[in-house]
Write a structure and sequence with these properties.
mainly alpha, 2 helices, transmembrane helix, membrane, transmembrane
Length: 63
């Protein structure tokens, strides 16, 4: 649920930035919007990976 909310928020935010940075000839600057959303995806993926990695290291304490 949290992942869906975060990605929805960043999707809307990146789309808004894409609209604001578009010139008069375009509706949306898709390159900027897609790049920002890609950064959000990468950040959430890294967060999930680090969280899973920490959980694994707690399980294998050797006791």
């Amino acid at each position: 649920m949290r992942l869906f909310l975060v990605l929805t928020f960043f999707g809307v935010l990146s789309l808004g930035v894409g609209i604001l940075t578009a010139g008069d000839d375009q509706d949306v600057d898709w390159l900027i919007a897609g790049g920002l959303f890609g950064l959000a995806l990468a950040g959430e993926g890294a967060r999930q990976w680090l969280r899973r990695d920490r959980a694994k290291s707690r399980e294998s304490t050797g006791f």
